[in-house]
Write a structure and sequence with these properties.
16 strands, alpha+beta, elongated, five-stranded antiparallel sheet
Length: 633
């Protein structure tokens, strides 16, 4: 509160003037003469307050003292819990009649947090304020104070089994109850007063401010309006919050029933069940919930299916829509930074279809473009003036993809630090041609998807008819590097480079120069076998040179350029990680190889299954196939 003045007479008078009963209350609660009943009582004299303090042995906190001087009690009328606050003569120490102290002390542990210690001690110290309630208590705690000497107020609902709700002061509690009083009645057409008109004006102001890029101010206004339950405040606020935290689901209410917004909103609502994260009764429950909000069940089901199979496309109209199409084409081949720059440049041209949409929220549901919206980029969207509004243009968010290949050696770069990686690059080739070059029979590009999930969900050799156990057919993500190489990348390989290894470089090189790199999965224990590192380069169907490094052993073939000499890249005195980094950096500088980190670790790309990277065992050669899984219960 910082010592700021507060006019209790004006505040309580406004509350009294605005009071109307809740819908669920009987009309008989109104006085027989039709006049509004009094919520408070005449203020207590200073002598009455001083007498109460002498009885209690403590001076009351300032905000509660000032309240009593204006109204010696109040009819709070919470929806559930406390109904009546007593006056100076009614209040008394709580004295923990239910022995809550022991219960809360039991769970403190050896290193409890300060707030938990305060809560455990509150029951013995607290001053009880309520005189009428539903097994609930309003408790002022003199042991939990702020810099102004205000006591925290706890509301404990004995029937709820939850922790007490804390307010930093009595004034904060009363202001929250006043906002709750408004929110309970916000749906009523006859509930119109100076406060509702002010908060509705704040919603309108927030909408325009948000379109001008001043989202921080809009956020504050909408949060306050929402606390009063004002219409539109929730759906506008959820759009701001969603773009600030793009992976968190949000509720957009009945906008799914409005033809102006359904194409933006319904796919966003479907994101959670499409990811398999909907736990409340499965698809039927979600579809029923959408139908209850007005969305056609068939439409909702089609949107959910398109999100699941990756075929959903965010397709807004106008020049913004054309930029979205262009950006998707770039992003689906891995050029996510370039795609974001296209979207950023086009954002000012985005147009809102109506007064309940303040940003292109439907972008989040696009399987290719949605992953590009990081929290930083979400803020950039909100800070960019759009829909015909003007304002300050924000500083561009930096690109996310580092150059080259060194990021492959970063800890947990592939979300699985023990995984290996392998890749085929083909110079000057179209990525769409890779299935024909190195794919298994009948291989086709999938719809853009999460490469990690595609790899994890791929069927294993023992699950596939006609596939031998010795075969190693990875699911690879496909794209194009900044330097124009087509690539096929497997970043989730648990396979080790064996003597049966068959490099796909020769088959890939029929369309131009091809490069293959394979790094074994790292060992989980120090001192175990080193991770092998392989490089092979081919052109016009012929291998030019290759090498494989295992610890201090080096196998080589062909005329290896000096810059790629494995003896210079993998020096015995350097760590395995240093050698790998040197090799990756040299491959970037000498051959122009790179990979888009963001697309491969957080984005969506086309995938396909390659031919086997191992050959059939020859006479006298053996192999082992181990499949580890968890037994069912």
């Amino acid at each position: 509160m910082s010592g700021e003045a507060f006019n209790w007479l004006e505040f309580l008078g406004r509350w009294q003037e605005e009071w109307v009963p809740r819908d669920e209350l009987d009309e008989e609660e109104d006085e027989d003469d039709g006049q509004t009943p009094g919520l408070g009582r005449p203020g207590a004299d200073e002598a009455v307050i001083a007498a109460a303090e002498e009885r209690l042995g403590r001076r009351l906190p300032a905000s509660y003292r000032e309240f009593l001087a204006v109204s010696d009690g109040w009819h709070v009328e919470q929806t559930a819990g406390v109904y009546q606050l007593g006056g100076a003569a009614d209040i008394d120490w709580f004295r923990d009649p239910y022995d809550m102290t022991s219960l809360y002390e039991e769970y403190l542990g050896d290193n409890p947090r300060e707030e938990n210690v305060l809560l455990a001690g509150m029951w013995q110290r607290a001053l009880r304020l309520e005189t009428d309630s539903d097994m609930s208590h309003a408790l002022l705690d003199p042991g939990d104070t702020d810099q102004d000497g205000e006591w925290a107020l706890y509301v404990y609902q004995g029937w709820g089994g939850e922790l007490p709700e804390r307010y930093p002061s009595f004034r904060a509690y009363m202001e929250a109850m006043y906002r709750g009083f408004h929110a309970d009645r916000a749906h009523r057409s006859d509930f119109v007063n100076a406060t509702t008109r002010l908060q509705d004006a704040h919603v309108e102001d927030a909408y325009l401010l948000a379109l001008q890029g001043r989202y921080e101010v809009a956020l504050s206004l909408l949060e306050e309006a929402l606390s009063f339950g004002r219409p539109r405040s929730a759906v506008l606020l959820n759009q701001l919050r969603h773009l600030l935290a793009p992976r968190s689901p949000r509720d957009y209410g009945n906008l799914v029933d409005d033809p102006r917004y359904v194409d933006e909103i319904l796919p966003v609502e479907a994101m959670t069940p499409a990811r398999g994260e909907w736990r409340l009764g499965g698809d039927d429950h979600w579809l029923g919930m959408m139908a209850a909000r007005g969305a056609a069940r068939q439409t909702a089901q089609a949107v959910l299916g398109a999100l699941r199979d990756g075929t959903h496309h965010y397709a807004p109209p106008g020049s913004w829509g054309r930029a979205v199409t262009e950006a998707r084409e770039a992003a689906r081949w891995g050029a996510t930074d370039a795609a974001w720059r296209m979207l950023r440049d086009a954002l000012p041209r985005w147009e809102t279809p109506g007064p309940s949409l303040l940003a292109p929220i439907g972008l989040l549901a696009d399987p290719v473009l949605g992953p590009l919206v990081t929290p930083e980029r979400g803020r950039e969207i909100l800070a960019t003036p759009r829909a015909g509004q003007t304002g300050r243009v924000p500083e561009p968010v930096p690109d996310l993809d580092p150059p080259g290949l060194a990021w492959l050696a970063e800890p947990a770069a592939n979300r699985q630090p023990l995984d290996g990686y392998r890749c085929v690059w083909v110079e000057g080739s179209d990525p769409a041609e890779l299935p024909a070059l190195i794919g298994e029979e009948g291989a086709e590009l999938s719809e853009p998807t999460d490469p990690r999930r595609a790899s994890w969900q791929a069927r294993k050799p023992h699950e596939r008819e006609g596939v031998e156990l010795w075969e190693d057919r990875p699911v690879v993500a496909v794209g194009r590097t900044a330097e124009g190489w087509a690539f096929a990348f497997d970043g989730h390989s648990h396979h080790h480079l064996t003597k049966l290894f068959l490099s796909p470089a020769q088959g890939a090189s029929s369309a131009g120069r091809a490069v293959v790199v394979w790094r074994d999965p790292r060992s989980s224990s120090p001192g175990e076998r080193s991770a092998a590192f392989h490089l092979s380069v081919a052109e016009q169907g012929q291998e030019l040179y290759a090498f494989t490094v295992r610890g201090t052993e080096i196998e080589r073939s062909g005329a290896i350029p000096d810059a790629l000499d494995p003896a210079q890249l993998f020096r015995p005195d350097d760590t395995e990680l240093d050698c790998e980094l040197r090799a990756l950096e040299t491959l970037h500088t000498e051959l122009g190889l790179s990979l888009p980190r963001f697309a491969l670790t957080q984005g969506s790309l086309h995938t396909f299954t390659t031919r086997s990277w191992t050959r059939a065992p020859r006479e006298g050669e053996g192999f082992s196939y181990v499949r580890i899984g968890r037994l069912g219960h």
